Each structure stands twice: as C-alpha cells, then as structure tokens.
Amino acid sequence: MRIRRVILATLPLVGLVGTTLADGDHDEARKAYEAGEIVALTKVLDAVQSSFEGEVIEVELERDGGRWIYEVELLTSGSVLELEYDAKTVRLETTGEKVDAARKAK
Q1: Sign of CA dihedral 104, 60, 69, 39
Q2: Cβ contacts of residue 77 below 8 Å, gap of 6+?
Q3: 8 A C-beta contact, residue 83 and residue 71
Q4: pLDDT value at position 24?
Q5: Per-residue 3-state assignment (H helix, E strand, C coil) for the chain
Q6: Theoretical Cys-Cys bridge with 85: which of 32, 70, 71, 104, CB 3.0 to 4.6 Å?
Q7: Diameter of the chain by CA atoms?
Q8: Cα-Cα-Cα-Cα dihedral of 94, 95, 100, 102, to 10°?
C-alpha cells in the first residue's frame, strides 16, 4: 500500500503555525478541498480539541489507498499520540488504551 504525503503543517508549542510543503502540495490539497474530498483542517483541529487533552504538535494530510487521512500528533502528558481522522468525515480511526486515556472527561 503506497502512502502519498501531501501536506505537512507543524504547529509549534508556542501556538504559531508553520507549514512545510513540497511543490504542488498546496494545489493538490486545495483541489481535494474544493472537490469535497476533504474538510478544512480547522474542523479536524476542533474535533481534536473537543475530545482530547493535549497540544497538537503536527498534522499531515495523506492520501492512502484512494482515501485522504489527517494524521494528527498530539502531545499528551508524557507521550506523543498519533491520531488518524478520515479527512472527509472527520471520523476518528485510531483506537486503543492510549487514545482512551487522552480523552477529555465528560
């Protein structure tokens, strides 16, 4: 299975957004957004913030087997958690004890 990395956005701990992109990545991500294949990154970040404790330190948009996935690295107390969201539905696809432990109390 080939994974195509399209966009990498690094969110430093100070809260400023820096972006590293290869040639053509902006265009590919914009086309996917305009075609309704992905949602805006802000929707994914909102989903992460509403569900998890921690700080987002990195986000990648990847195309994997015809599907777009937002891969979010979250700095939690003591570890870095990698969360994967369907880029069209914002459905969390990552499960496990570490994911459950990082969830906000309801």
Answers
A1: positive
A2: 53, 54
A3: yes
A4: 58
A5: CCEEEEEEEECCCCCCCEEECCCCHHHHHHHHHHCCCCCCHHHHHHHHHHHECCEEEEEEEEEECCEEEEEEEEEECCEEEEEEEECCCCCECCCCHHHHHHECCC
A6: 70
A7: 43
A8: -20
Q: What is the pTM assigned to this prediction? A: 0.77
Per-residue pLDDT tens over the stretch 33-88: 889 999 988 899 999 999 999 988 888 888 888 889 999 999 898 789 999 999 99
Q: Is the pLDDT of residue 7 over 60?
A: no
Nearest residue to 54 via CA among 15, 102, 105: 102
At 106 the pLDDT is: 74
Count, residues in the chain: 106
| 82 Cβ contact list (under 8 Å, min separation 6) | 71, 72, 73, 74, 94
* Annotated domain spans of the chain: 3-95
Which amino acid is present at 22?
Answer: A
